[in-house]
């Protein structure tokens, strides 16, 4: 059977009856997704899994009888499968969600403490995309053949965000730009842990909900020799520093004289995302050109592919993560297909290549 005729089977696990109902309705509205069951706690979930054999699990963290993290840890040891965490936007929720990513979850869907139905309906595209990306994720050697993402809305390009004009002052300072999506949290940890404390200034877009990006940056800061923080409008891009684009806002690279800085701004979804890798990459092509070094890591879709092609045309050093080490070989595949990636490398070689090309 061809993959496109196979709907992604989802089991929704949440102690809130409202969340189970609303999430099920939203997922069921996508013709590529089938909700095969719901469960109010991990014990019911384990029983349902035996009955319906889901492709993907959505998992709440705060549940009675057994919390989601404990269940996730057991699941990944006994029956590895794609899991998408459905977590509150509260501080304790963000910390637990990052722990869940460490344990093997592939993505996070935020949920509010109030206004659940409206919030989920407004986030429908991202939620359905997260489920479909998870279904294609490598988990314990399992991998599904990718299907073309379904277009359900007009796809805006980065032109709607990018300012007119280009850099006027020459500079030789290198700047690194990186994009990632599904599977990117672990890929970025491995990449940044390979950076020395004087690594070139780096700006990263990781597709992640707002509030989670700050916790993610703080976590990386404690694990790496470089200083990592969530980007704020006007932050300088400095050697030994890494800026993580905040969730739900676009981050652009700009120049002021010989100094690079970031502009953080609102705007429409670009390539179905905010922040968008294309917005960062295309601004880097315009303002850094041949001084830029760009890497596109694991993720579904095509965000960053056009921007990487523009970076290569501008003389930048560009590289994409290879199929073998990607959790989802989507964004890098598109960049390679469009001719944007000068090199295709395994994740473990990308850090060294960034540092090498930054010195040349």
Shape: elongated
Q: CATH homologous superfamily of the largest domain, by name?
A: Methylesterase CheB, C-terminal domain
**Alpha-carbon Rg, integer:** 20 Å
Distance between the termini: 50 Å
In DSSP terms (H or I, runs of 4 or more residues), the helix count works out at 12
Uncertain residue segments: 140-155
Structural class: alpha/beta
- Average pLDDT number: 90
% residues in beta strands: 15-25%
Strand count, sense and closure of the main sheet?
7 strands, parallel
CATH architectural arrangement of the largest domain:
3-Layer(aba) Sandwich
Domain count, please report it. 2
CATH level 3 topology of the largest domain: Rossmann fold
Count the strands? 14
Q: Could you estimate the helical fraction of the residues in percent?
A: 25-40%
CATH class of the largest domain: Alpha Beta
Side-by-side strand order of the widest sheet: 8-9-7-6-12-13-14
Give me the strand/helix succession. Answer: EHEHEHEHEHHEHEHEEEEHEHEHEH
In words, what does this structure look like?
The protein has 2 domains: 3-136, Rossmann fold (3-Layer(aba) Sandwich); 160-359, Rossmann fold (3-Layer(aba) Sandwich), CATH 3.40.50.180. Helix 7 links the parallel strand 6 and strand 7. It has a 7-stranded parallel sheet with strand order 8-9-7-6-12-13-14, with helices on both faces. The chain has a 5-stranded parallel sheet with strand order 2-1-3-4-5, with helices on both faces. With 360 residues, the protein is of the alpha/beta class. The longest helix is centred in the N-terminal third of the chain and has 13 residues, at 91-103. Helix 1 (17-28) packs parallel to helix 5 (116-122), helix 4 (91-103) crosses helix 8 and helix 7 packs across helix 12. Helix content is 35%, strand content 21%. The radius of gyration is 20 Å and the shape is elongated.
């Amino acid at each position: 059977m061809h993959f496109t005729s196979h709907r992604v089977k989802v089991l929704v696990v949440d102690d809130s009856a409202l969340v189970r109902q609303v999430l099920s309705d939203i997922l069921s509205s996508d013709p590529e997704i089938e909700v095969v069951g719901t469960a109010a706690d991990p014990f019911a979930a384990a029983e349902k899994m035996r009955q319906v054999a889901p492709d993907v699990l959505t998992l709440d963290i705060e549940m009675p009888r057994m919390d989601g993290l404990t269940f996730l840890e057991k699941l990944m040891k006994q029956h590895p499968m794609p899991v998408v965490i459905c977590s509150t936007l509260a501080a304790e929720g963000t910390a637990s969600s990052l722990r869940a990513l460490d344990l093997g979850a592939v993505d996070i869907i935020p949920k509010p403490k109030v206004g659940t139905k409206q919030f989920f309906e407004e986030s429908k595209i991202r939620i359905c995309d997260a489920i479909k990306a998870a279904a294609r994720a490598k988990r314990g050697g399992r991998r599904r053949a990718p299907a073309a993402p379904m277009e359900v809305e007009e796809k805006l390009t980065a032109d709607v965000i990018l300012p007119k004009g280009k850099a006027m002052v020459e500079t030789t300072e290198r700047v690194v730009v990186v994009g990632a999506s599904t599977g990117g949290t672990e890929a970025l940890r491995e990449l940044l842990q390979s950076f020395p404390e004087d690594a070139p200034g780096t700006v990263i877009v990781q597709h992640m909900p707002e509030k989670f990006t700050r916790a993610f940056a703080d976590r990386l800061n404690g694990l790496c020799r470089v200083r990592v923080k969530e980007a704020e409008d006007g932050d300088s891009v400095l050697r030994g520093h890494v800026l993580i684009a905040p969730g739900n806002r676009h981050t652009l690279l700009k120049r002021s004289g010989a100094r690079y800085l970031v502009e953080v701004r609102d705007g429409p979804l670009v390539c179905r995302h905010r922040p968008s890798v294309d917005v960062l990459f295309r601004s880097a092509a315009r303002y850094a050109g041949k001084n830029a070094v760009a890497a596109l890591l694991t993720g579904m879709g095509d965000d960053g592919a056009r921007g990487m092609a523009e970076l290569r045309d501008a003389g930048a050093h560009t590289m994409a993560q290879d199929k073998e080490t990607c959790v989802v070989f989507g964004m890098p595949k598109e960049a390679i297909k469009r001719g944007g990636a000068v090199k295709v490398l395994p994740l473990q070689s990308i850090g060294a290549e960034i540092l090498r090309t930054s010195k040349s």
